[in-house]
Design brief:
Blueprint (H helix, E strand, L loop, with lengths): L4 H15 L11 H11 L4 H14 L3 H6 L2 H8 L6 H16 L8 H4 L7 H12 L8 H10 L9 H14 L5 H14 L18 H4 L16 E12 L3 E2 L2 E2 L10 E2 L2 E4 L5 H6 L1 H10 L1 E6 L5 E4 L3 E12 L7 E2 L10 H10 L4
Parallel strand pairs: 1-8
Antiparallel strand pairs: 1-5, 2-9, 3-4, 6-8, 7-8
Helix pairs in contact: 1-11, 2-3, 2-8, 8-11, 9-11
């Protein structure tokens, strides 16, 4: 464990105060806004998350506004950010805070952890920034900074590594200004101790940085390799009826994109052609239901949509139908539904010129 925590925290906070970015959540200690920013920025870069934060604050200025919103409306506003369980948890927690806590977030780490979608990192951030509690945050930026400066090779994606880095961050935190320290170390990792080619010769810690002194910057932090990427084959059936209607279905099962909308989809074990598609029992049932007259392939080259642990190899089949089904919606209304980015890109390309 480091013995120079005052030196580390003083250097870090001095750097931060001189280099901090002008971000809207940096000028408030309102728990609602801090919570909102932290949930949005999970697995998301600041530049990508900032417009979403501003949209949510404008649309739902108070936690009660978010609690009273319809889930489909929230999912639509979230569209494009990915990891959609965050949006569902956001809504669930807003309801709890609004209805069971009179609109006031818990003022301590332990009770914050009880909120849906709030883990150690988010609870620590809110507790330190809003309530001045010395709870250290640990995220990818913190792992990277601490592993390099102190030369720690314990894998960060193991229970032992997570415990070790949490303990170290807790030891280093400036207890007189914990919120500033937490924001400083996250900012430093995001902007200076970056994953590739950090500017080590000009770093404030280079004289004591173990990774820099021993030429191991590119080796740290250590992370155990994840499982192999799984390939999945999606075949979307894009219905076009005689009255310019189409069909969207909501995903209700477990897994990706829960409660988002998509075109009817048949998943196969490999990439397939039209004759193979037409022989599938699911397609034959679909064809009977919608009285299919013609089908054509929209994209000769499959679209490969990459998620964290799987790649979706996707084809869009344009299906012309005689059936004016009650489940169909006007093409002009597709934009009202929250859909995955994969679907949104197709809709823009195809229906944008339709």
């Amino acid at each position: 464990m480091p013995k120079n925590s005052p030196s580390f925290s003083n250097k870090l906070i001095t750097w931060y105060l001189q280099n901090t970015r002008d971000l809207p959540w940096r000028t408030t200690n309102n728990p609602y806004y801090i919570w909102l920013s932290e949930i949005i920025l999970q697995q998301t870069r600041v530049l990508q998350g900032l417009p979403y934060y501003l949209k949510f604050v404008e649309t739902y200025p108070k936690v009660e506004d978010l609690a009273n919103a319809h889930e489909d409306e929230i999912m639509k506003l979230w569209q494009g950010l990915g990891y959609y369980s965050r949006a569902r948890n956001l809504h669930a927690t807003a309801k709890i805070v609004s209805e069971e806590m009179n609109g006031a977030f818990p003022n301590n780490y332990k009770d914050l952890l009880k909120l849906k979608g709030v883990g150690d990192y988010t609870a620590s951030a809110i507790a330190s920034i809003c309530f001045n509690q010395p709870e250290a945050v640990v995220d990818g930026n913190v792992y990277r900074t601490l592993s390099r400066v102190f030369g720690i090779s314990t894998p960060i994606n193991t229970p032992a590594g997570q415990k070790e880095f949490k303990q170290m961050a807790q030891l280093l935190i400036d207890k007189t200004q914990p919120g500033t320290f937490n924001q400083a170390i996250m900012e430093f990792g995001a902007r200076y101790c970056v994953p590739q080619n950090p500017d080590c010769p000009n770093c404030i810690f280079n004289e004591n940085c173990k990774a820099f002194q021993h030429n191991k910057v590119s080796e740290l932090p250590v992370k155990i390799k994840a499982k192999p990427i799984k390939k999945r084959y999606f075949n979307y059936l894009v219905v076009l009826s005689v009255k310019e209607k189409t069909v969207l279905r909501q995903r209700t099962g477990k897994g990706i994109w829960h409660r988002l909308y998509e075109f009817p989809m048949i998943e196969t074990s490999e990439d397939i052609n039209l004759p193979t598609l037409e022989k599938l029992p699911k397609f034959q049932s679909f064809s009977e239901e919608f009285q299919i007259e013609n089908i054509s392939l929209y994209n000769e080259k499959p679209v490969i949509h990459k998620l964290s642990h799987q790649h979706l190899i996707t084809r869009f089949w344009i299906v012309e139908s005689r059936e004016n089904s009650e489940v169909a919606i006007p093409v002009s209304e597709i934009g009202n539904y929250a859909v995955p980015v994969l679907i949104e890109n197709f809709v823009s390309d195809f229906f944008g010129n339709y």
